[in-house]
Amino acid sequence: MIKLNEIHKVYTQGKVGFHALKDINLFFKKDETIAILGPSGCGKTTLLNILGGLDTPTTGDMVIDSKLTTNFTESEWDYFRNHRIGFVFQQYNLIEHLPIVENVAISVKLSGVSHKDSHKRAIELLTKVGLKDHLQKLPNQLSGGERQRVAIARALINNPDIILADEPTGALDKKTGNEVMDLIKEVGKDKLVIIVTHNKKVANKYATRIIELEDGRVKSDTSPKDEKVKIILKREKNRKKLKFKEAIRLAYYNIKGKKWRTFLVSLGLSVGIVGLILIDALFNSIRTGLEQQTAVIQNNPDIYIMADDESTTIDLALTAIENTNYFKEVFFAPRQDFQIVKNITKDSNLLSNVGTNVIGTPQSTEIKSVFTNILGDGRLPNSDNEFALPLDTAKKLINSNIYLSNDEIWELLKNNIYLIHTDFEYSVAYIPSIETNCIYTSMWDGDTNNLPLEYNETELGTITENLNALSPYRSTPIVVGDKNVFCGDYSEIYWEIDYDTPVGEGTEFKLVGIFDNKLFKEALFSEDTINSIGSKNSYIYPSSEETNPIDEFYRYRAFLKNDNVSNKTDIMRSLEERGYIVRENVDFGLDLFSGITNLFIYILQFIFSSITLIAVVTGSLMLLLILYIGVVERRREIGLIRSMGGSRSDVRLIYTGETTLIGLIAGFLSILISLVLVVILNIYIYNNYQELVLRYLPFVDPKKVLSINYAKLIYAIIGSILLAIVSGLIPSIIAGKKKPIEALRNE
After folding, report:
1. From edge to edge, which strands make up the β-sheet containing 217-221?
2. Distance, CA of 17 to chain centre
3. What is the pLDDT of residues 202-251, one digit of tens each?
4. Are 227 and 3 in contact (CB under 8 A)?
5. Per-residue pLDDT tens for 272-313?
6. What backbone phi and psi angles, to 5 degrees, belong to 644?
7. CATH topology for the 301-336+544-585 domain
8. What local confidence, expressed as pLDDT, does residue 113 receive?
9. Is 664 within 8 Å of 721 (Cβ atoms)?
10. Distance CA 20, CA 45 (A)
11. Cα(84)–Cα(645) distance, rounded to whole angstroms?
């Protein structure tokens, strides 16, 4: 069965050599129990290691079942150790962090057997050796004899042809030693059993053949045999490999036994990943805000439609545009600057262009009759600390990117309290946006030269400061004072608020109603109303000066229905075919601005992420160091796995399984820490830096300056796993390269 032919083994250290085995010629047959005797250092263990494939001779040949091992590949040696050999070591060589059932099953798992089948075999063998009640115990919870029984069960699980036992009773008392030898004799009845021992009594009692060594040579053989063998050159089939899920299971038991080390390593690895998540959360919030602003503008249902002013009246044009059924609202929107006129009469051709924006307490029955269409449960103002708004102005108070119904607008705004500060000369009824051209005056004397037509920092700086401090709607503040006020932009006319009683500093005003602009305009310019208020108030109307060809057209502002926004291009083309001039209400530099801004954001994110990567690299190096220390600590375990037929790739796979679990833990830790930090940091930023955020990042929600993209969190887990695996590559390669005999010789 096994033939050794002129085996020599020389160990070298530098230029010095030690001849451990000299000219060994032996033949072993099946069904023999052979004891190899001899003093310490005579070569007994070296011979056993060569027979088991853990070591190779310096010269000479070994033939196993007619196969010459001299030219065995590493894969063939792995197959031989896994399927043909069962080792019983003097020091047991059990893996301390595995339950004994896993210690026994690991050998068969290395040959690709499933967890269920391997456990079934392991339980049967442990029951056979009397350890049925100790399956889940760790090796350090067993006595020496029980440990050796586990080692015997492990040696038998692959049903090998050869059992090699190295001093199996050396660490046991006499009684336990005899029990172990009885067990070996029983389980080895139909196998070749080779026992290395220094105890002649044990050899005489249990062996059918005794070979004695001295100084590396065979001194005596009680039953020498020699047969000619025919060499078969056919290669052994490659065995199946360890399954990855079993590698993960083995890794789990290892990290389970080192909980705190695993936690700290995972925490160190997660620190850098947390930094990357927080940086991405910050720039995600900025990017999302910009994208939403861009999307709102690009998908704006708002378009301008120009119609020839000679071909139709404004009212007919409005009706014609509305009848296309594309739009939910259409308004007349003059393009020109404003002038001020007094004493408008019912015959004025300017009346059709007039709108309104704010009303206080109506001063006459005629005016009260105008406001007949108040939304929802709203009403007209009844006192000087109340006011009402037209619908289009109310919409400007809603900083929303989604379409809201009229009733929803009212529900959001009704009974809102506006704290009005009047500690300045100018009092403004309504400012749509500080960037737009508005009219501010408290010195009205009929001369338009006294009327500022655009924002003046010197005169109105105090107003802006007070508005920023007191108004809940910074972009659309409402300020009411005791002076006459006019304010307008390019598309709307604002009606004067006239209070009889001066308003004190810090007065609160309540919004009590929202009314329909169109119905108001129709009623406002009825004969009775004009006769009543036309001589009392001043209005703003479009100037006809400095016209250009496009000014020959009236301009209308139309808002597409929600379902039509996606078809805006087709609708615009259809309107052009009908003779209209159509323009989108967008900034044509928006795309360029958006592109440059996004590029700038990505560059900043790259810079910050690059800095944070230092922490990631540091964590990776720490993991690499810990795993390398683990290789040194677990040399005997690595040697044991190789002695049971585990290949280099199996050892690497076990380490990869461990790094995968560490990376997974680090990934979940980084997500958990990031989620907690985002909540804490958002609260802190909102409470301490809300004003700065609103000033410099107006498109970012100050309550959510950090906004995690939850879909990207899976990348954090995948990234941490890959990072851990890469960090463990070098230690796993080093571990895989360990030769079985070298690893077993080292603690």
Report:
1. 85-88, 162-166, 192-196, 33-37, 209-214, 217-221
2. 58
3. 888 888 899 999 888 998 888 887 766 666 655 556 666 788 888 888 88
4. yes
5. 889 888 888 888 888 887 777 666 555 656 676 776 655 456
6. -90, 10
7. Alpha-Beta Plaits (3.30.70)
8. 85
9. yes
10. 10
11. 10
CA 257 to chain centre: 29
Count of all residues that appear for the chain in the document? 747
Short-list 319, 672, 677, 374, CA closest to 513: 374
In angstroms, the first-to-last Cα distance of the chain is: 34
SS3 sequence of 547-581: CCHHHHEEEEEEEECHHHHHHHHHHHHHHHHCCCE
Residue 168, token pair as written in the block: 């199996």
Under DSSP, the state recorded for 374 is: B
Provide the token pair at 270: 């997660």
Q: Measured between alpha carbons, how far is 169 from 167 in angstroms, rounded to an integer? A: 6
Tokens 């068969």 correspond to 108
Contact at 8 Å (CB) between 440 and 488? no
pLDDT at 712 over 80: yes
Q: Which two tokens stand for residue 512?
A: 């009590």
More confidently predicted of 732 and 710: 710
pLDDT tens for each residue of 390-449: 676 666 566 555 566 777 777 777 766 654 433 323 233 333 223 333 323 222 223 333
Which amino acid is located at 495 in the chain?
Answer: W
What are the structure tokens assigned to 533, written together? Answer: 């208020």
Distance CA 430, CA 336 (A): 20
State the amino acid at position 85 in one-letter form: I
- From the centroid of its chain, how far is CA 747? 41
Whether the Cβ atoms of residue 135 and residue 154 lie closer than 8 Å to each other: no
Phi-psi region of 35 (alpha: psi -120 to 50; beta: other; left: phi over 0): beta
3-state SS of 658-725 is: HHHHHHHHHHHHHHHHHHHHHHHHHHHHHHHHHHHHHHHCCCCCCCCCCCCCHHHHHHHHHHHHHHHH
| Architecture per CATH, 2-241 | 3-Layer(aba) Sandwich (3.40)
Most confident listed range (190-199, 432-441, 605-614): 190-199
Residue in this structure with the two tokens 């009848």, named with its chain if needed: 323
Q: Where are the domains of the chain?
A: 2-241, 259-298+592-745, 301-336+544-585, 348-538
